[in-house]
Amino acid sequence: xxxxxxxxxxxxxxxxxxxxxxxxxxxxxxxxxxxxxxxxxxxxxxxxxxxxxxxxxxxxxxxxxxxxxxxxxxx
Amino acid sequence: xxxxxxxxxxxxxxxxxxxxxxxxxxxxxxxxxxxxxxxxxxxxxxxxxxxxxxxxxxxxxxxxxxxxxxxxxxxxxxxxxxxxxxxxxxxxxxxxxxxxxxxxxxxxxxxxxxxxxxxxxxxxxxxxxxxxxxxxxxxxxxxxxxxxxxxxxxxxxxxxxxxxxxxxxxxxxxxxxxxxxxxxxxxxxxxxxxxxxxxxxxxxxxxxxxxxxxxxxxxxxxxxxxxxxxxxxxxxxxxxxxxxxxxxxxxxxxxxxxxxxxxxxxxxxxxxxxxxxxxxxxxxxxxxxxxxxxxxxxxxxxxxxxxxxxxxxxxxxxxxxxxxxxxxxxxxxxxxxxxxxxxxxxxxxxxxxxxxxxxxxxxxxxxxxxxxxxxxxxxxxxxxxxxxxxxxxxxxxxxxxxxxxxxxxxxxxxxxxxxxxxxxxxxxxxxxxxxxxxxxxxxxxxxxxxxxxxxxxxxxxxxxxxxxxxxxxxxxxxxxxxxxxxxxxxxxxxxxxxxxxxxxxxxxxxxxxxxxxxxxxxxxxxxxxxxxxxxxxxxxxxxxxxxxxxxxxxxxxxxxxxxxxxxxxxxxxxxxxxxxxxxxxxxxxxxxxxxxxxxxxxxxxxxxxxxxxxxxxxxxxxxxxxxxxxxxxxxxxxxxxxxxxxxxxxxxxxxxxxxxxxxxxxxxxxxxxxxxxxxxxxxxxxxxxxxxxxxxxxx
Lengths: 75, 699
Prior knowledge:
The complex is a heterodimer of chains A (75) and B (699). Chain A has 75 residues and is of the alpha+beta class. Chain A has helices at residues 22-30, 64-67, and strands at residues 2-3, 12-18, 38-44, 50-55, 58-63, 70-74.
């Protein structure tokens, strides 16, 4: 099982599961990071601490720690 | 005339403020939501026999309680009285925006959806069938653009229209599974002829959503015993179907799929080949290697601008207040009253107003960073770095705001959700030297460095403060605020051309706030300091010196004697007594009683420090014509190592009374203010002590 954190720039994937709880899960969901969404990695920061992903027409930035909680499948 | 109260709701970065500006040119009234310091903007205007009042609620991604802004919005929508909602959505990012819309539909209020940014959507090849969308959502949708002002008239017309019709029930439909359970409940309620203000459908939905209020209300009624097993069965079905028992997640998924479906049916994306504006700029500004240097360059440029361009009007203001003081003396005479007005009030306030140009430029820069969308990029770039110090990429926003003024900085720390992260950020905001400290630094940089160097020195002072802050953050994180970090998830809004009107509004209100402070708080403080430095009177001493001066032989001797008199008078004044009393504590830092007094008054407001120094130093120096300015006085009277130590101390200790009050409120108690006072004063003392001794060795 790979997570969003395993993808590299310009790779696309579909979200299988968000392993977060409570508010974080809700937060991620309100940004569109939910089961079934298609995401594309746009930018990785130089220290691999943050990444920018595209969901639909919007762009979201998140930390690798959070990205690891999002299980995905490459498409 | 009918009154119409409208809540303006939308996600962040959808152009709500711009829309409210486009709707009404009448003045935006900015206040606070009661009890909290979240900004509340409203406009009132008359339209076709209606007095319309629009309240701009803080942006929220969904109706939850993640941040204080979101809590305010949710609380307002659920508990306040209002007639209808205007839901502003970003037409270029419809799916995510409609998620909030689906939640708003659940509130059962009259609503209209403003599809904002249609101009951008067109450029990006997004075509929306608003008729179709209206019929899916069950509320009217109007295409608007706050930038080009298209559709604004139509939006207001429709708003007034739907207010005069009865409310249609929401058309939010769920998946077949959920709909089946809803209809089961509705059938039961109908059979029981249950009396309810809500429609049976809405009641059923709320029961399935486990709405606390409804449960509280219904569980005391006879129907409850029969209703409960039906609800339990329904919920069990949902649990099995969704393989989770988290009902919130189930409905969140339902609403998301509804939003997705609505977009699928009504939006057409035409392929546009061009690489978008945002992507082009992003490829440079958040570039792996160039991103951070570019950002540092911007910040450096901002500080240079502040200093270089700011100095031009500063000279004019200085001259203006100088001549105003002289004029006041001709009107009120050279006596007590003249001195009070000219040397106390005008000199004190003038010293503060002089720095208005600097403050305007700095706030302009910060407003530009915010409205263009660059601020989020910077948070993205810097999170890796900040995280090492136990901070959050978002801490960047309050910290940068701290360079302008600590008060809004403390308030903006609210976007940090985790209490520990927020407290940590609050504690080190003071290290980011605020606009009011700028006058002190400008004064000292001007006094001890050449004009070409002054800008660089200023930059170094600011950077150094920030670095001390980061180190302190790490120390606090390791020893005080231990625990889990707040997750970092944020939107990267599109780059947008800033709206002149909005920027003007922000900068003007900040400048006004500063002037207000100068006009009231600092005026009083200046007069108090004047009094404390002029009283108690020493008539005997004055007479002694007058006699001595009369019999003095040379002009030089006369001058020396009168300077000595001024200083002795000051030493024996109330202010001098206070300064001398607390001076031993500051003696290891090289401060004399004058600097000690200046620091003490700085606890009230940093602007007062310069005003105090103006009063303290000009008294002994007025006689000599060749050194007119305070800058000369300071470079003459203060040794270089002491100046360094003074700058360092000022950099770190408590910003001002107003900031202390806001800090207390944001941190959640006076005990935190106590911690902050002890922490900053101790750090300031230690760093100033080290700086003083290093400077002594070097020079």
